[in-house]
Design brief:
alpha/beta, Rossmann fold, 2 domains, seven-stranded parallel β-sheet, 42% helix, 18% strand
């Protein structure tokens, strides 16, 4: 069993930071041990009788399988009585009525919790993967905003605080300081630091706004990058361009230009720009939905063929494959019948880490947080891309993290001349914005 002496120096600094600030944001990179850090701070607060009742808000899989288990790995936190408050309403109510030190709930039930409790009773709240509260219009944010003033200690945890840009930061920081630094309203934040494009739709940061925002939040935010503190394996990003057959490319181009095409007597129509982007991503992967009932038509197998070549060229390697749509999953399972789908069963994770699974198929949304898969393989393959930087980084982080014994390759199957190329560019631009925030906070702390 690990003891407190096994904590890294940077973890001890993070503990001191959240205890001294009372309300703060820990922007910790993947693999830096944010769970153990937070449990240590929670233990200190409870042992000193500074707080009485702790709530942890996390993604569902993390709520069910990380916090309670991690508390039992450490000598100084194993005394904590951690209750998981997920499942049916009856199960959640029963858990909340049981005396414990720490209660863990999934973020989808935050609104329910605030309505269920006649009086807010948690004086310490930890929000794991806080980017889940980046939408100021979401019910979960509004619900937590209503009770934020009743929380004495609160800290947010995320390795991706601005996964879609600096606008993500306002709701998260509001939970920390009630708008003291970035403004009381999201509208005021936008008008102060951003300007609209000539069409009036998109917002871009004004000149020097990024630096101003970084400086404003610096005293409440601690940022750490894995490369600064951990020995992580090398990572090689590979873009493997896939040529679509002429007939598929013709249909793709027609759909992109006219929002309408016909394939095998099936009419494909995109009703708006968002629907078109989805249809184009589907087409890039090889199969397009034809209606809302889930019917689809296959237009090419180029990515399946490319994946088959990867398997042949990497004999003996286990592959973690990211898919985007249910049609992708069905086609992958049909083409590679020995592939295993990552579900909720712990046995699948154990078999992967034991090297028993050659191809593990996973959706980034279900494998993006809280899973340690670095023992089972060192190759990530993006069969289907999506626009989320957070899911992209978290998914890659399942293999590229401390404890990975081999260099990691992240292979992107990108349909040449298609929307895939734009997705890759968008992810790169989002990452620059996020990295700028993390670097700025570190620099400000050093000065």
């Amino acid at each position: 069993m690990l003891s407190r002496s096994n904590l890294h120096d940077y973890q001890n600094r993070a503990v001191e930071f959240v205890l001294s600030k009372k309300r703060s944001y820990l922007a910790l990179d993947l693999g830096l041990g944010k769970t153990a850090t937070s449990l240590t701070a929670i233990s200190d607060l409870l042992d000193a009788c500074i707080v009485e009742r702790v709530l942890i808000i996390a993604p569902l899989r993390v709520a069910n399988s990380v916090w309670k288990q991690e508390s039992q790995r450490w000598q100084h936190t194993k005394h904590l009585n951690v209750l998981i408050c997920t499942g049916s309403e009856r199960q959640r109510i029963a858990a909340l009525q049981t005396k414990a030190d720490v209660y863990v709930i999934n973020r989808e039930n935050v609104e329910w919790l605030t309505k269920h409790l006649k009086k807010w009773s948690f004086d310490c709240v930890v929000i794991d993967e806080a980017s889940g509260f980046k939408n100021a219009s979401s019910r979960r944010f509004k619900a937590l905003k209503r009770v934020a003033a009743d929380i004495n200690y609160i800290w947010l945890l995320s390795g991706t605080p601005t996964s879609n840009g600096l606008l993500d930061l306002w709701p998260q920081m509001y939970l920390v300081d009630f708008g003291e630094r970035l403004g009381r309203t999201i509208t005021g934040f936008k008008s102060r630091f951003f300007e609209k494009d000539f069409m009036g739709y998109n917002l871009t940061a004004r000149k020097n706004s990024s630096d101003k925002i970084h400086a404003l939040v610096a005293d409440k935010m601690m940022s750490m990058s894995a490369e600064d503190y951990l020995e992580v394996p090398d990572r090689l990003d590979i873009v493997q361009r896939v040529m679509l057959p002429a007939s598929a490319l013709k249909a793709y181009n027609e759909l992109e230009k006219t929002l309408l095409t016909e394939i095998n007597d099936e009419q494909i129509e995109a009703i708006n720009a968002a629907a078109l982007a989805n249809k184009l991503l589907q087409a890039s992967n090889g199969c397009i939905y034809t209606d809302s009932a889930g019917n689809s038509v296959e237009i090419h197998s180029a990515k399946l063929d490319a994946l088959a070549e990867l398997i042949e060229d990497n004999a003996g390697e286990n592959l973690l494959v990211a898919y985007n749509y249910k049609t992708d999953l069905k086609r992958l399972q049909k083409r590679f019948p020995s592939a295993v789908v990552l579900g909720k069963e712990q046995k699948t994770i154990d078999n992967w880490n034991a090297g028993k699974i050659q191809m593990l198929l996973a959706h980034p949304a279900s494998a993006g947080h809280g899973l340690n898969l670095q023992r089972g393989g060192s190759v990530v393959v993006w069969f289907g891309l999506n626009w989320s930087l957070e899911l992209y980084q978290q998914f890659n982080g399942r293999l590229h993290r401390q404890g990975q014994p081999k260099p990691v390759r992240v292979i992107h199957l990108v349909a040449k001349g298609c929307i895939d190329e734009r997705v890759m560019t968008a992810i790169s631009e989002k990452r620059k914005i996020q990295d700028a925030l993390i670097d700025a906070i570190k620099e400000i702390k050093l000065n």
